[in-house]
Design a protein that fits this description.
The chain is α/β, with parallel strands linked by helices and 481 residues long. The protein has helices at residues 3-24, 102-108, 165-182, 199-215, 236-239, 241-249, 255-265, 275-288, 339-348, 351-357, 384-392, 410-418, 460-463, 465-476, and strands at 39-44, 58-66, 71-78, 89-93, 112-114, 128-130, 140-144, 163-164, 191-196, 224-230, 376-377, 396-402, 424-433, 436-444, 448-453. Helix 3 packs across helix 4 (199-215) and helix 4 (199-215) crosses helix 11 (384-392).
């Protein structure tokens, strides 16, 4: 397409973006573009639903990353509960893209978790307790709502929400430069990037941006040591193609269906080139839809169904706050894996919580755990070149996979790692916790470690917190798994 035509179409699309966002995205507030401070911080000592003062240091705040659109990224910083002066600092991102990093803080690696007990929206608030398996026991973690539109990160100009892999990664780099400038006491600490799912796609790109800044001696000089990614999106050639083989291995599709797929699709399950291939893939997708592909052993549960909640008498009721709620999630049963997400919706959409976290009034209406209604450009075809470049430069890398995930199956992750053609330093073996195999691991040249987490799903630390805690502590402390 000629550049002039492409530019014209893009301009026309941006003209309609404001209207589309207002119509499609619940909770999005389009604000006048004002001159505001680039950074705002708050030390949080108490949280609604948490009994007593927080037993850890929590700071929240905003950092401006794009003046033209008034884009500000929201963060939660939890200082290490062990030795904050020397422990690593980890930037944690959540996937989606545009799932709130609160998922990482409250469900995966952070210091609080919800009490999973029956709750009726509008009656009090869900309860929180301290998580004894928080990764903040051995590192400081900077949880970041990125890209803009995730969680409480916002833009004052609606055009600011139109981002993609490259632009959002550059915004993360700007965020880090400003954050470390405001927090120079952490510059000497070892620094790592961490995250899972789609965050695993952009983390190597962000790490390379930081690495190039270090080579140019750009200030502040971040002490980048490496990155860790769980069940990471990497390249559809591997991530998607190996779903079929994995579904067969898990017993979701039969030998006959698997052989039909291999024969008719020529082992390319991403772009079917004939009718027979398309038909067998349709059959396979129908079978996979019967299970929870994030963890094949778990129940399929409600995640977020836009319907009004009702109390036991069948009458609709309103929540006890002024925030307008458009999409209250369907209520899963307490034993469902998604029940914590249901609790988070009500906790985050309460004014007591907003006040405690220091959320700027008028920036975000309804908080949604994963915001699917904003534009995003998937412009990076593969992150493998960035993995290759970073590890060759000497940066440490831990790639881990929950072994019951069918969204990004470990077979595909193993395959792209093998494609790097690194020599093996420590061959495939079990790694242990309390005398039992917690997974299996292999270490390659160039400081690259791959590990499986036995019984883990797509976000491994949600499903197997003890195993992931042990794995992360050993790796961050430079110990073998």
């Amino acid at each position: 397409m000629p550049f002039k035509l492409l530019r014209t179409r893009r301009a026309a699309a941006q003209c309609h973006l404001s209207l589309l966002l207002l119509n499609l995205v619940p909770g999005l507030l389009l604000l006048p573009l004002l001159s505001r401070s680039a950074a705002a911080q708050k030390v949080v000592t108490h949280l609604p639903g948490f009994d007593g003062p927080l037993p850890f240091y929590l700071e929240t705040g905003y950092v401006g990353v794009e003046e033209q659109t008034g884009t500000e990224l929201f963060y939660y910083f939890v200082e290490s509960e062990r030795s904050p002066a020397t422990d690593p600092v980890v930037l944690w991102l959540t996937g989606g893209p545009r799932c709130s990093v609160f998922s990482g803080l409250a469900f995966e690696v952070g210091p609080v978790k919800f009490v999973l007990e029956p709750y009726i929206g509008g009656v009090g608030l869900p309860k929180l307790v301290h998580n004894p398996l928080s990764w903040t026991k051995m590192s400081s973690i900077l949880f970041l709502d990125s890209p803009v539109g995730s969680g409480f990160s916002y833009a004052r100009d609606p055009k600011g929400y139109d981002v993609g892999d490259y632009s959002s990664s550059l915004q993360v780099q700007r965020f880090l430069n400003k954050w470390f400038t405001d927090h120079p006491q952490y510059l000497s600490n070892p620094f790592y990037l961490g995250g899972d799912s789609y965050a695993g796609m952009v983390i190597p790109l962000i790490a390379q941006n930081i690495s190039e800044g270090i080579e140019k001696r750009q200030q502040p000089l971040i002490n980048l040591k490496g990155y860790l990614v769980g069940n990471p999106k990497t390249d559809p050639k591997f991530d998607n193609n190996f779903k079929i083989q994995s579904a067969h291995g898990f017993g979701i599709i039969s030998d006959q269906i698997y052989e039909a797929a291999r024969k008719n699709c020529k082992e390319d399950y991403v772009n079917p080139e004939n009718q027979m291939c398309a038909e067998v893939l349709h059959t396979i997708n129908s079978l996979i839809s019967e299970i929870a592909d994030a963890h094949i052993l778990y129940k399929k549960c409600v995640v977020a169904v836009p319907k009004p909640l009702e109390d036991d008498s069948g009458r609709k009721f309103l929540l006890e706050e002024s925030i307008q709620l458009n999409q209250p999630p369907g209520r899963p049963t307490v034993d469902c894996f998604t029940y914590g997400y249901y609790l988070a919706y009500f906790w985050m959409n309460n004014n007591l919580t907003r006040d405690a976290l220091g959320i700027k009034e008028g920036t975000i209406g309804e908080w949604i755990r994963c915001n699917r209604g904003l534009p995003y450009t998937y412009e990076m075809p593969s992150s493998i070149p960035y993995h290759l470049n970073l590890t060759r430069r000497g940066y440490r890398a831990l790639v881990y996979s929950g072994d019951h995930d069918l969204e990004v199956p470990l077979l595909g992750t193993q395959a792209w790692i093998r494609s790097l053609n690194f020599s093996i330093v420590d061959d495939w073996r079990a790694w242990h916790l309390d005398g039992q195999a917690a997974g299996f691991t292999i270490t390659y040249a160039n400081n690259l470690t791959f590990a499986t987490v036995k019984g883990g799903g797509h976000t491994a630390s949600e499903y197997q917190p003890e195993e992931c805690f042990a794995m992360a502590r050993r790796w961050l402390d430079l110990e073998p798994l």
